[in-house]
Design brief:
CATH superfamily of the largest domain: lpxc deacetylase, domain 2
Number of domains: 2
Mean pLDDT: 94
Strand content: 25-35%
Low-confidence stretches: none
Radius of gyration: 18 Å
CATH architecture of the largest domain: 2-Layer Sandwich
Number of helices: 7
Largest sheet: 5 strands, mixed
Shape: globular
Helix content: 10-25%
Length: 307
Amino acid sequence: MQATLEHSVTFEGIGLHSGRPARLVVKPAPAGYGVKFERMDVKIGERIVEARWDAVELDQLCTKVVNADGVEVSTIEHVMAALAGCGIHNAHLEIDGPEVPILDGSAAPFVQTFLETGRTWLDAPVWAIRVLREVEVTRGEAWAKLVPADEMKIDFSIDFEDAAIGRQHKALRMANGSFVRELCDSRTFCRQSDVDAMRAAGKALGGTYENAVVVDGADVLSPGGLRHADEAVRHKMLDALGDLALAGAPIFGEYRGSRSGHALTNLLLRELFSAEGAFCFVRCTEEMAARLPGAGVHLGELPGKAA
């Protein structure tokens, strides 16, 4: 069955790129609603912005959705990953500005609050997208593909010159709460040189050592160091789950990415939905639903939380 939150929850912080205070209220929604944002500060025009692949405006730094009136919401990938990873199919998100709060740079604060709040089961089946044949997109040395699989899997590789990151690879089955256990607390990361360049361009104004992992060569500049030795690739997998959630339904297929990012993952969804015979919609049986990312997940699976 589809699920939503038991009651509304609120998050407050700053936007990573804008540096502006941000308040997000996540509310329950009925079956079939999906995930939609509402810009509460917009007074003229349509203020609902759907969290869908075809509403994405391509950006290398974050995932941004825009409606027909040009109203946008950016940096949505972490809350989208948390919703998908907690098995929440329907939610209405009220936001008072153009960017979701970055919080600690991971999805863990969203996940913890969602699991503490609990889910309400709705009298409607879950429909999923089954990948029927391989689709792939490339951009320079970066590539991403979706291949058929009987559950959602993510396989990701990265390669950075900085020794603090270097080459990393990780592959996970996303069933049975693995997102919560393995990925949700991994933070966004960047190089100090990139931070300097972005700030010179008027971006990353809300970034700090407290909400991102900043590296410089072999050094990790953020206090406390890394949460995982391979935190960087884990965060890329987190981002991929959030970006794939914009498909509008869970995916039965394996995502493989190398040096991929937000824009390439969105281009992959566009390729999936435009390629003839590449996918179909399936009504999930009880056994299929048990293999979805949020099935059976509980608070004890969150890193640092007792079962």
